[in-house]
Amino acid sequence: MSAPEFSRPIKARALPEAAVDLQANDTECAALAARFGISSIVSLVARVSLDHRGKAVHGEGKLAADIVQTCAISGEDFPVHIEEPIAVRFVPEGAPPETPEIEIELDASELDEIEYSGDSFDLGEAVAQTLGLAIDPYAEGPDADAARKKAGIVTDDAPSGALAEALAAFKKG
């Protein structure tokens, strides 16, 4: 397996006291854009606070990214700004789960658990994965409606037929 495109290893035993600021450079942005299948990543920054909770390290913060992706309808590139909360828990590989293995409802503190081996975890890769999940693979750009109309998928006429009438009645009631 190759190294992550946006690697920022953090020693689990010696966590920074202040929040960690991460910023991807141009090479990392280009590699992440290729990984996620988008046109480009103009900028990617994150700020994450880390603290020990038992054997786990909890990370909470926020990422902001400016990306360029292709419209799912028109095929034209358009800019997108993403702001996404980060909530992860890094646990040593093979550590027993904090809760027994029974079917339960999960809350935010039990999601996004990432195992690590050795004495450090990769905070940059966790940020990259959070960004990857935040990207809408079917995003529509500002010219999507015009492309639909040009292709004859939509018209200026109001929808008609039994389904359109049922939907109109549903919206009124």
UniProtKB/TrEMBL annotation:
It holds the Pfam family YceD. It comes from the Bacteria. This is DUF177 domain-containing protein. It comes from Parerythrobacter lacustris. The lineage of its organism: Bacteria, Pseudomonadati, Pseudomonadota, Alphaproteobacteria, Sphingomonadales.
